[in-house]
Amino acid sequence: MIQSSTLTFFRQLRKNNHKTWFDAHRAQYEAARKNIEDFLQAVIDKHGKKDPDIAGLTAKSCLYRINRDIRFSKDKTPYKTHQAAGITKGGKKSPLAGYYVHIEPDGKTMVAGGIWMPEAANLKKIRQEIDYCYDEFNKIVTAKKFVNQFGGLYRGEDVSLVKVPQGFEKDNPAAEYLKFKSWLASREFSDADVTSKDFLKKVTDAFETMQPFLQFLNRPLEHD
Questions:
Q1: Average pLDDT over residues 115-129
Q2: Sign of CA dihedral 159, 162, 164, 167
Q3: CB 70 within 8 A of CB 78
Q4: What single DSSP character describes residue 184?
Q5: Of the candidates 17, 9, 10, 13, which has an alpha carbon nearest to the alpha carbon of residue 76?
Q6: Over 90: is that where the pLDDT of 205 sits?
Q7: 19-36, pLDDT tens digit by residue?
C-alpha cells in the first residue's frame, strides 16, 4: 500500500521546496521513496505475469530522480513534488512505448502509458503501422474497456499536428491518429484511491487495459 505519510511528505515538500528543508527531512523522503518502490515492485511482479516485456524489471531501476533539471527553467525549485517511474521494456530510457506511474498528492496521482515524442524514424514507423493496420488500432483505442479506463487517447494540441503529415492522403481513414506526434492515454486517482488496499489492483487493471495499445506501438519499433 501507499502510505498516507508518503503523500504528506510530498505535500510538505511543495511548501518547502529548498535544499535546507529537504536535507533536514531526508529520512522522510527515503521512507516515502522506499514505500513507492515497494509498491511499484508489486505492480511489476503482478503484471509481469501477463506482460513478459516488463517481467524481471526492478522498481528501483524504473524510478526517476527527485531532482529537477533547472538549467533551462525559470522555475529554480530544486525538487519534483512527486515520484514517478517509467516501466518500459529495456528500462526507463528505452525508446519503446511503456507504462508510467506518477504518485502525487491532492488527486494528481496518475497512471499512463504510450510513447512521448519518438525520434523521427520511430515516429514514421508508428504512423505507417497505424496506416497499414488502422482497423486494429482504432479497435484498441475505442474499446469500451479502454475508454472507461482512460477516456480514450490524449488529444492535446501539444501532441498533434494541424494537418495530416506529408506522405499520407488528407482523406486517409486514419488521419486523426496520423496527426499525432505522441500517442498517450492516462487516468488520475484520488488520494483515497492511492492509499486504499485495492490500489494495486486498480493499477494492474489499468496496465492490463493499456497492454494491447503498447504492444501495437512497439510492434514496428521492434520488427523492421
A1: 97
A2: negative
A3: yes
A4: E
A5: 17
A6: yes
A7: 999 999 999 999 999 999
- Distance (Å, whole) CA 170 – CA 107: 40
Q: Which residues of 75-95 are buried (b: 16+ CB within 10 A; e: fewer)?
A: eeeebbbbbbbbbbbeebeee
CA 196 to chain centre: 21
Is there a contact between 64 and 85 (Cβ–Cβ < 8 Å)? yes
Whose cell is 505519510? That residue is: 5
Looking at this protein, which amino acid is placed at residue 196? S
Residues in the chain: 224
In the three-class reduction of DSSP (H, G, I as helix; E, B as strand; rest coil), residue 174 is classed as coil
Q: Please compute the mean of the pLDDT values over residues 3-30 and round it to a whole number.
A: 98
118: left (phi over 0), alpha (psi -120 to 50) or beta: beta
Q: 109, 193 in Cβ contact below 8 A?
A: yes
d(CA 54, CA 8): 30
| Residue 72 CB burial class (10 angstroms; 0-12, 13-18, ≥19) | exposed
- CA dist 222 and 18 (Å) reads 42
* CA atoms within 13 Å, Cβ hemisphere of 38: 10
Spatial CB neighbours of 150, under 8 Å, sequence gap ≥ 6? 185, 186, 187, 206, 209, 210
Distance CA 40, CA 218 (A): 22
Element (DSSP H or E) covering residue 98: strand 98-103
Q: In what order do the strands lie in the sheet with 83-87?
A: 83-87, 98-103, 109-115, 183-189
With a cut of 70, say whether residue 224 has pLDDT above it. Answer: no
Residues ≥6 apart with Cβ < 8 Å to 56:
48
